[in-house]
Design goal:
heterodimer, A: 223 residues, alpha/beta, Rossmann fold, seven-stranded parallel sheet, 8 helices, B: 114 residues, alpha+beta, hypothetical protein PF0899 fold, three-stranded mixed sheet, 2 helices, 6 strands, 33% strand
Chain lengths: 223, 114
């Protein structure tokens, strides 16, 4: 039996990156801004989306892709706001991959302004997978603690925005916003930071304004 | 904990290359795994050993080379290894630092039986 060494030098996530780049090109071409929301379970991604939906409607049209290990609960919550939503049930997988988004592609209406992808609640694995988004956001809720950015660096180093959520709990929770911001900006100086309570509606307007500005900027660049 | 799905991607590439070379079996695999790639090398090894059973790589050994996070300052050009993940240039303090290595997982070489 003869043995042979083969030099490969291929990226193990190369196929995901390729599919993601195709998705990004197509959605951007249609004038859609795609946002990937990542966080631990229970950091407030769905509540934030409900709050955003109230602010974007009726001027802007949004849709949501929900990723969960089980149940359609989040999709039902979004649909209750009159928003088109699709559920991806990963059946155990801890993250979404670009090919899962690709399968839904034909159903995405071309007149959309914003496509939100709510990733599976997990601060580790989703960070490794580009889904074809234009903006990646990581949510950090106050009960999780202000020391998380350096404990889970990849979620923060690969994101464009940091959303510190559940600030309505600050009076009863030891969370130092300045410390969390400092940690996050040290590992990623380019993060846009937003501080908000989706439940109380505080700080959500600033994030929505940022999204609208980003949409117009992207459309100008691709006009 | 997505090591198993990374290994599934690895096996897709291994199978492609094995077919292209008209090989019979894979007997050795060498990976470069960045410390900021999001996977744990030890768990990747466990996942590999589970996945390889009853496949063309059943007897294959896996070596993982850990790649530290290497960055370059876009202002002064300084190249540095970052263990603290603080992406600020040590020399000039600039925040325009780009990552050169340490974020990817690369299949470097494989040894096959032909």
């Amino acid at each position: 039996m003869k043995k042979k060494e083969v030099l490969v030098l291929e990226d193990l996530l190369g196929s995901n990156k390729k599919i993601a780049a195709e998705i990004r090109a197509k959605l951007t071409g249609k004038g859609i801004l795609t946002i990937n929301l990542m966080s631990s379970p229970g950091a407030g991604k769905t509540t934030l989306l409900e709050s955003i939906a109230e602010r974007l409607s009726p001027e802007y049209k949004m849709a949501v892709i929900e990723g969960d290990i089980e149940t359609e609960r989040d999709t039902e919550r979004i649909r209750a706001k009159g928003i088109q939503a699709w559920q991806i049930i990963t059946g155990g997988a801890c993250h979404l991959e670009a090919k899962m988004i690709g399968k839904l592609f034909s159903e995405i209406p071309p007149d959309l302004d914003f496509l939100f992808i709510e990733n599976v609640g997990n601060l580790v694995c989703p960070a490794g997978y580009d889904l074809g988004e234009n903006i990646r956001c990581v949510l950090l809720s106050t009960p999780e603690g202000d020391d998380k950015p350096k404990k889970y660096p990849k979620a923060f180093t690969t994101s464009d925005c940091l959303l510190i959520t559940k600030t309505d709990l600050l009076p009863i929770i030891p969370f130092d916003i300045e410390q969390a911001k400092k940690e996050a900006l040290e590992i990623n100086p380019h993060l846009e930071v937003f501080i908000l309570s989706a439940l109380k509606g505080q700080g959500v307007d600033a994030f929505v304004d940022y999204l609208i500005q980003s949409l117009h900027k992207q459309r100008q660049n691709h006009a | 904990m997505h090591e198993l799905s990374v290994v599934a991607n690895l096996f897709e590439i291994l199978e492609d290359k094995l077919e292209a070379q008209n090989g019979k079996r894979v007997c050795y695999v060498k990976l470069q795994v960045g410390l900021l790639s999001g996977v744990v090398p030890e768990l990747l090894k466990t996942a590999f050993d589970i996945y390889k059973k009853d496949t063309f790589a059943e007897e294959a050994e896996l070596d993982i080379i850990e790649v530290p996070c290497k960055v370059q300052c876009q202002k002064c050009g300084t190249v540095a290894i970052k263990e603290d993940y603080i992406f600020i240039c040590d020399k000039c303090g600039s925040t325009t630092v780009t990552t050169l290595e340490g974020t990817d997982m690369i299949l470097e070489t494989m040894e096959i039986e032909i």
